[in-house]
Write a structure and sequence with these properties.
The protein is α/β, with parallel strands linked by helices. 54% of the residues lie in helices and 10% in strands. It has helices at 19-27, 55-60, 77-93, 105-113, 123-136, 138-148, 150-154, 161-174, 178-191, 209-225, 228-238, 253-260, 266-289, 304-317; strands at residues 7-12, 32-37, 63-64, 97-102, 198-205, 294-298.
Length: 322
């Protein structure tokens, strides 16, 4: 007899779509254990700007893979995949079902498709790219990337220096577009069954983008009122941080850093933070639309939890594949 395939559920969505509240409501009805899929929640002491669940919510609904590292440390997609798989196996051993919740789509991709075997960094090439960026600016290098790898360029912001650099580096090393390499490696990973679990994936998406934008603006203003500026100032005092560290590239934190440096005013901080968060939501929604496995659920619908619960009830009771 074949070994049954274990189940894993995903609740994904853009920022401010209500993922945490929805996940906690679902956990009250199903044998779920929540696993965070959020590249900002891995940092300790970054609470306000990441909308991290408070102590009361975490006591009632524990989340795995949050508060893992300090803000001066790095956490990669490879780290996440390792830790997420360990959490999934642990939760299955408890006789429960992992519910992976978040909006870090790169983490989802790494978990499901496996990690790309791409060429290692080349210091000389990286230095040359950074020198070009210093002279021309990252938008100009984004345009160069669009000429050789339009698929990758289309999903990157013109100022996403880290990913633009890596995509150009891979192309210069291999002569092949990063997107083409990733497609090939994903197919190879699928053939190797790198994610051997039966999955149900739900995407909280808004039926009215303007309502999501209003939520984003209100939430960022609430974060400022709750002490986001003081939080970042305190982090700068306690840790040897700089603006290009992964933690300080998180939406909101970069803009507060600019404010603390005197580069932007208080009013500009709010506008910049809201604009950056909207851009993040747009990228997240683009990824979700291109993911056929993700069943869309209107996050603005008062019956969203009931809709997801209906589908989960059928999925949970269906025989395991295998």
């Amino acid at each position: 007899m074949a070994t049954p395939v274990k189940k894993v559920a995903f609740l994904l969505g853009p920022t401010a779509s209500g993922k945490t509240a929805t996940a906690c409501a679902l956990r009250e009805r199903f044998p779920f254990e929540i696993v965070s899929v959020d590249s900002a929640l891995v940092y300790r002491e970054m609470n306000v700007g990441t909308a991290k669940p408070d102590a009361g919510m975490l006591a009632a609904h524990p989340h795995r893979l949050i508060n893992l590292i300090d803000p001066d440390q790095a956490y990669s997609a490879a780290d996440f995949r390792r830790d997420a798989l360990a959490a999934i196996h642990d939760i299955h051993a408890l006789g429960r079902i992992p519910l992976l919740v978040g909006g870090s789509m790169m983490y989802v991709k790494a978990l499901i498709e496996g990690l790309s075997t791409l060429p290692p960094a080349d210091p000389a090439i990286r230095a040359a790219i950074e020198a070009s960026a210093t002279t021309l600016g990252w938008p100009a290098l984004h345009a160069q990337l669009a000429a050789v790898d339009p698929a990758t360029a289309s999903r990157l912001s013109p100022n996403d220096s880290q990913r633009i650099q890596r995509a150009l580096e891979v192309h210069q090393i291999t002569g092949v577009a990063l997107s083409a390499l990733q497609t090939r490696l994903a197919a190879e990973a699928a053939a190797d069954h790198v994610f051997p679990f039966e999955r149900a994936m739900f995407a909280l998406v808004p039926s009215n983008r303007a309502v999501l934008h209003a939520r984003i603006e209100n939430r960022f203003e609430a974060m400022l009122a709750a002490g986001l500026i003081d939080e970042v100032a305190g982090l700068r005092q306690r840790y040897a941080l700089h603006v290009d560290m992964p933690s300080m590239r998180c939406v909101g934190y970069r803009q507060v850093w600019q404010y603390l440096e005197g580069d932007i005013s208080r009013d500009e901080l709010c506008k910049a933070g809201v604009a950056a968060t909207r851009q993040l939501a747009k990228r997240q929604l683009t990824w979700l639309r291109s993911t056929p496995d993700a069943r869309p659920i209107d996050c603005l619908d008062q019956n969203a939890v009931e809709q997801i619960a209906h589908h989960l009830s059928q999925w949970q009771t269906a025989p395991d594949a295998g």
